[in-house]
């Protein structure tokens, strides 16, 4: 979360949510980085950090959070529904950070059998990509963080005026920088 803070995407006092928070390590990290009201949601409660709830039907009002993080996006049963819920609960201009693993994306998951970020990004219909970065050891391609900013209602993308499964030129260039996500016997898999 430190790098997001350095980029001005995460600021002290933001209201933050961790989706699929498990035992609350990410919630605790956010609290230690100046977000004392950060809360997590998962199928099991780990009070006081994580509330019990369905990640596909978040128990929060529209526009509740400045920041939403998930390290469980690629394990969601219905990724499109999770993306929709993240955007619903995120305030306009708010930031979402999705940690995805190319290894998990390929394990029988309908999001993306080809290890690509493009289908993941396309699920966020009301957000633009602002940053993409690899995490883990260099060249390991263990995981990627996709950082998105929710667009104001009325933008061409939020009104559905862009072609289905397309996004802005900026999104394409950022995603292209992160591709390929993995290597198969020395050959890039796109």
From TrEMBL:
<dbReference type="Pfam" id="PF08241">
    <property type="entry name" value="Methyltransf_11"/>
</dbReference>
<dbReference type="InterPro" id="IPR029063">
    <property type="entry name" value="SAM-dependent_MTases_sf"/>
</dbReference>
<dbReference type="InterPro" id="IPR013216">
    <property type="entry name" value="Methyltransf_11"/>
</dbReference>
<protein>
    <recommendedName>
        <fullName>Methyltransferase type 11 domain-containing protein</fullName>
    </recommendedName>
</protein>
<dbReference type="GO" id="GO:0008757">
    <property type="term" value="F:S-adenosylmethionine-dependent methyltransferase activity"/>
</dbReference>
<feature type="domain" description="Methyltransferase type 11">
    <location>
        <begin position="17"/>
        <end position="97"/>
    </location>
</feature>
